[in-house]
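Our example pasted here:


***
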Amino acid sequence: MEIQTVKKMEKEALKGSGIDFMRLGFALFFMVAVLAYSFLSLGSVPNSMFLAIAALFGAYMAMNIGANDVANNVGPAVGSKALTMGGAIVIAAIFEAGGAFIAGGDVVKTIKKGIIDINAFGGNVDPFIWAMMAALLAAALWLNFATAMKAPVSTTHSIVGGVMGAGIAAAGFSIVDWGTMAKIASSWIISPVLGGVIAATFLFAIKKTMVYKEDKITAAKIWVPIFVAIMSWAFVTYLTLKGLKKIWPSIVDVLSFLPDEKKPSFIVAAIFGLIIAAIVYFIVKKTVTARAAKLDNTRAGINLLFTVPLIFAAALLSFAHGANDVANAIGPLAAISDAVTTGGISAKAGIPFWVMAVGALGIAIGLALYGPKLIKTVGGEITELDQMRAFSVAMAASITVIIASQLGLPVSSTHIAIGGIFGVGFLREYLVSTNQEEILHQEELSIEDEKKVLKAYTSERKTLEDKSDKTKDDYERIVNLYKMIDEEENKIKSSKKHIKSVEKVKYVKRDAVKKIIAAWIITVPAAALLSAAIFFMIKGIVL
């Protein structure tokens, strides 16, 4: 029997190692293909070897973005069972790549958010190229480590730390814009808190308007279309502001009635959102009314109505993420490409199609190969999610970005999503603990009543036992009093034991919270130190 068990374990181990080997093989094949293409197509350009190696680092970074960051978009949908793991990966891969290709833009700021002053390089191209290469590799290595530790971290903060560390190594601490870095540090608090509060608010609203109602189906007919319409408004506004801003001039050329602006204003984006939201409202209202007769008047029945909106949310979040965060992989690569081909340093650089393809395909491949680990963590290892909780997280992800962008607050999409998950988990704890505290209070009052009864029984027994001329009824009463006193003492002991044994319900896993927050805090400094070390290593090898 033991031999058979060992053989089964060996078989599973071999199967697992075989799958890991295939994943590694696919990843290496993609990276080698990028390296070969960039070298062969640009072999005649001076410093083409640096560009080829940078392309390799960019491919590695893109795959790590797919493995780590994309989980925040689809993890809640998978955890709530609205999507299967396979379905989530397919949807996310298509929309991430689509967002990168369609709305990734012709131009990105190569030095993200003005982290460092490129003038400090004094027009010297070589240190600039080394710094960007070091930033890419350091950010990718940190993301790889975080993914292995099942810690969802911000890819933007990873590349920020990488650029900062390499910049300091190349030109000293004065190169860094510390005001910008302070804003980025503030996002560690702003993003999760905003995400958590908004997600908890929507979940509580859903509970009050539908779950706590006796006739849940009738309430759902009224409120589900409203909630989904709000989500539609938020996503269309979010996508217009964040996903379409890079192709907005082309849209204005086609739709001439739009204001002639370089990027959409909040008012225009909000109007677009309201138009789509109105259409969605009537479609969802009709759909919910048609399905109502087939649903159970339970929480589970209400949950089913949020399944399709969650699938759309996962797709739209992936599209917007691909449009924006592809720059984390290809921004430094575009800077290196521009520096190598032009021989100068520019704050902005045009992106060749092959560079965009490295970012878009790398994110999709990284997601498909290594994304499931973080998707499982986000979807189920922080707190238990169902459709309405996951819907609240998706709402938080879009609305928080809109609010933050209008207030000029720095936020991280990763921190918002995880903060939203924390928010719905802690709300559940609060609601249950509030109810539990009331129950315990009632039990404590009951113990006080039992003690009064016990005292009365004890006093009566003592009085009868001290009586000199006891009757037969007195003796029978004394015997009954002993029994009743024992029963009361047992009741009090049982109630006290129950109160002591009751612990506060914890729906959010504290170990996961501690690990994730620790990873957030050390992301920028860890990537910075690693990047500085890599910069000096590259400099030492070259010189």
The mean pLDDT is 84.
